[in-house]
Amino acid sequence: MVRVAAVQFEPTLFRKAENTAALLRLAAEAAERVSTPLQPGPAGLVVLPEMATTGYTYQTREEIAPFVEPVPGPTTRVFARLARDKRVALVVGFPEVDSETNLYYNSAVLIGPDGELAGVYRKTHSFYWDTRWAADGDLGLPVFSGEWPGPLGMLICMDAGFFEPARVMVLNGAKVIAFPANWLRTAPSPEWRARAAENGVYLVAANRWGEERGARFAGGSSVIGPRGEVLAEVARGDGVAVAEIELGEPDEPSGPDDSSRPADRPGPEGYRGWVRRRPDLYHSLLRHPYRWPERYNFGTLGSGRFWLGALSGTGPGLSPAALNNVARRLPGEPGRRILVLPHLANASTRDRAGLIQAAKSSGAYFAAWLGRGEGKGEVLLLGPDGPRGRYRSPHRAAASGDGREAPAGQPFPVFDLPFARVGLLEPLDLLLPESTRLMAIGGADVVLASGPWPADLDDFAFLWRERAETNDIWLALSTGKSAGVLVMPSQSEAGVNQPEEVVFGEPGQCVPGPREDGAGLRFRVTGLWAETAPGTFSRRKDRVRRLRPELYKPLVGPHGAGRRYT
Fold it and tell me: Taking a C-beta distance cutoff of 8 angstroms, is the pair 428, 393 a contact?
């Protein structure tokens, strides 16, 4: 066991000396709480916020020029003394100037418990404030090994809004990610939790708090565990979040083709038995069609307003008559309704034929997972004009759970409807961030997910909303017991309706379906109105536009093997 700490602090613009003095006091407090100078093993780790010595919202290169410094420089020397005296490792965020080029960077340094500079990371995915004065980071996505909790990767704020940087670091061996931030939205954020959970690593998130030039920073500094659980947190104000973490034994050396190597299969043990990564299918992660105007790659997609919903319910199946009854009563007009259905575990040829007929007669599009026994199945997309597409997950683990390669499957297709481009997934695919990203890169407006979701994975359900938000899509999902339509929160501010529940059938006046209270049968449908057109959020893909695929090559290497940084 080793202790780690996230320091929360509110710096003041233009007062670097005062900020540094206050940070030293907080860092010393944190060091006292994590340091174990007489015990063998790695030293404790203390992480300070992004731009902690200077504040953040500088408007021009000229405005921040008096406060940038080289590495090594005054700030690294001051904190090196603290690291050496307390025998802790420190991660410190501040604005860096490159002495050779005079370029400025939003950077973080790692100082070892011996007081020596051990690593530098430059923010690679810039927030808009960064673009006013800083260049994008050019040192890659390094991982550092030494006498500190790790191997250690570093991300800075906006970097955590994308799954790829953390994934590359974990594929290169990282077990801990230090995360200095100036995060504006809710914290601890689902994105922070996702970066830890999808990789099975610890994230030490040091955020600032307070207000600066109208920007309100969220605080919520925390230590997050490998299932996305918050182990320690500071809500508001200056403070320190401390937690003990268990890193286990160092991995045995292995070649890049050893599929049992944990770094080749990022993710907690809790779901490795259900899904496996398929880097042989991920090459489109390095494409970037959104660097060009929408009309070049996606200008011919259908557009318009439509209703998108998901149906929950388990037990006796949906008869074609019942499904037709439900679909006809959905909001909207025939041909512009989509409904995701609960999975049918042992679907027969008759079941398939009934679903096809119900789609034709109701004028709705249905997505449903139809099983073939032993957990095998596929998602079908059916429409008023018949079957439109199918998807079989390539991520499902071997039935024996012995870690062999997942069975072959169709690699993430998308299908064009008259008003939207849609992708199909199983809910288990949402454990792996590659799935929804590939569909977003392929131009999907909507992803429809139908299929089983084991109860022992319920604590990962928070990933569903994160997948929708970070890919600029609508995600409609039904696992039988749960159903919903998820969209990025900011879309409610942009006039997009939030999901509403539509209940069909009261006891005694019911639609055939799962029994409730021993009387009647009923389903619940959750849905919303959606719209696509040139320039709408699912077509602009604002988040996807800011990807840096030139940094992501390890994602497609054999079992994720890539260059190792030391």
Answer: yes
Question: What pLDDT is recorded for position 425?
Answer: 97
Catalytic residue at 123? Answer: yes
- Give the CATH superfamily of 2-267: Carbon-nitrogen hydrolase (3.60.110.10)
b (16+ CB within 10 A) / e for 365-386: bbbbbbbeeeeebbbbbbbeee
Boundaries of CATH 3.60.110.10 in the chain? 2-267, 284-296+307-554
Strands of 164-253, DSSP E: 176-181, 202-207, 209-212, 215-218, 221-224, 230-234, 239-245
Second CATH level (architecture) for the domain 284-296+307-554: 4-Layer Sandwich (3.60)
How do beta strands 519-521 and 337-340 pair?
Answer: unpaired
Active-site residue, selected from the candidate residues 10, 16, 50, 233 = 50
The catalytically annotated residue of 69, 86, 96, 157 is 157
pLDDT in tens, 368-424: 999 876 668 899 999 999 999 999 999 988 653 433 444 555 589 999 999 999 999
CB within 8 A of 293, min separation 6: which ones? none
Q: Which amino acid is at 278?
A: R
CA distance 356 to 330: 18
Element (H, E) at 478: strand 474-478
Peptide linkage before 316 cis (omega within 30 of 0): no
User: CA-to-CA distance for 76 and 52, rounded, in angstroms?
Assistant: 13
Model pLDDT, residue 382? 97
> Do the Cβ atoms of 182 and 56 come closer than 8 Å?
yes
Examine the residue annotation and report whether 229 is marked as an active-site residue of this protein.
Answer: no
- For residue 58, give the nearest of 185, 213, 208 by alpha carbon: 213
Residue 450 host element (H or E) = strand 446-450
> What does 379-411 look like in DSSP terms, one character per residue?
EEEEETTEEEEEE--S-BPPTT-S-PPPPP---
pLDDT for the residue 499? 58
Catalytic residue among 16, 123, 175, 541: 123
pLDDT at 165 over 90: yes
**Which tokens go with 566?**
């030391």
pLDDT, tens digit (0-9, with 9 covering 90-100), for 199-229: 999 999 999 999 999 999 999 999 999 999 9
Which among 246, 95, 243 is positioned nearest to 180, based on CA atoms? 95
The CA distance from 263 to 245, in Å, is 18
Dist CA 408 CA 279 (whole Å) = 12
Q: Which tokens is 293 given?
A: 């105007």
pLDDT at 501 over 80: no
Over residues 517-538, the mean pLDDT reads 77
